[in-house]
Amino acid sequence: MKDSRFSPLEEAWILFFILGVVMINYPFTHIFNKVTTFMGIPLMVFYFLVGWPLSILVIYLFARNIKNSETTEGDLDSDGEGS
TM spans, by residue (predicted)? Predict the structure, then answer.
């Protein structure tokens, strides 16, 4: 029987989801809403151009690791040893 508690990887997934939601809301967007530019790109646009692909990369890595951990758990017998 599978334990109902979250694995550490799933707990980190939840933490990064909450962090991602916070980073696209008021306090962080207000910090980057400046007139200054970085390499000719307004700071707010640069924040989203870097932050959005970075968050997609984090989601991809977590999804891949969770899938791999579920696959290896399914290969174990009920006594916890491989076949």
Answer: 12-32, 44-63
